[in-house]
Amino acid sequence: MRIGIIGAGWLGGTVGRQWVKAGHEVLFSSRHPERFESLTRELGSRASAGTVSEAAAFGPVVLISTPYAALPAIGRDHAEALHGKVVLDATNPSPSEPLTRDAERDGVGLTSARLMPGTRLVRAFSAVDATAIEASGIGRGKRLAVPLAGDDREAVETAVQLVRDAGCEPLVVGDLAAARSFQRHGPGFRANTDLLRLRRLLGLADDA
């Protein structure tokens, strides 16, 4: 699969590295793509670096792991390139951001969907730390459970597979409204735990 990463910093870079090792083609992007030269050289021919525009246009899946305040501009400036694509939203509003009030009132999932119209948005990798993803990917300790939420069933299925390809265990919580349970201040936010414990934290049946 061809995957563009917008905001390939600590989290985006870690997830992208795991995807390349799993066989995907990944384009890492930021405002300074030259910073990824050593990373792409290390990962080989399936890894490349480019601009945000190039990442948005690169493939059928895009991971966004920028500051939350960047989402309105990304949704506006790259609307055509992102239209119809599976967008994995790993962003989180900080307490100081103007959008935080909307996210707390309506839920981050629904707020992000409004900011990214025309996309098949799934909340993914938003509630876990890069260090926990890396440890899970190399088999150190129990596999990390990653909560997911989305309104588009096929998009969620794609996210499920990509979570597994990152060396983690997916847990589909529900639709975008249900993503509230693992946004900031929710029981699943930064739990960084295994599947069984995450189910219990979110009040889900162990065999759900």
What brief labels describe this structure?
38% helix; alpha/beta; 8 strands; 10 helices; Rossmann fold; eight-stranded mixed sheet; 18% strand; 208 residues
3D architecture notes:
The chain is α/β, with parallel strands linked by helices and 208 residues long. The chain has one domain: NAD(P)-binding Rossmann-like Domain (Rossmann fold). The protein has helices at residues 10-21, 37-43, 52-58, 71-77, 79-82, 100-106, 108-115, 130-137, 153-165, 195-201; strands at 2-6, 25-29, 47-50, 61-64, 86-89, 120-123, 145-150, 169-174. The chain has an eight-stranded mixed β-sheet, with helices on both faces. Helix 1 (10-21) packs parallel to helix 8 and helix 6 (100-106) packs across helix 7 (108-115).
Poorly predicted parts: none
Number of domains: 1
Percentage of residues assigned to helices? 25-40%
According to CATH, the fold-level topology is Rossmann fold
Could you report the average pLDDT, rounded to the nearest whole number? 95
Helix count, DSSP H or I runs of 4 or more residues? 10
Shape: globular
Strand order of the largest sheet: 3-2-1-4-5-6-7-8
CATH class: Alpha Beta
What secondary-structure arrangement, pairings included, does this model have?
Blueprint: E1 2-6, H1 10-21, E2 25-29, H2 37-43, E3 47-50, H3 52-58, E4 61-64, H4 71-77, H5 79-82, E5 86-89, H6 100-106, H7 108-115, E6 120-123, H8 130-137, E7 145-150, H9 153-165, E8 169-174, H10 195-201
Parallel strand pairs: 1-2, 1-4, 2-3, 4-5, 5-6, 7-8
Antiparallel strand pairs: 6-7
Helix pairs in contact: 1-8, 6-7
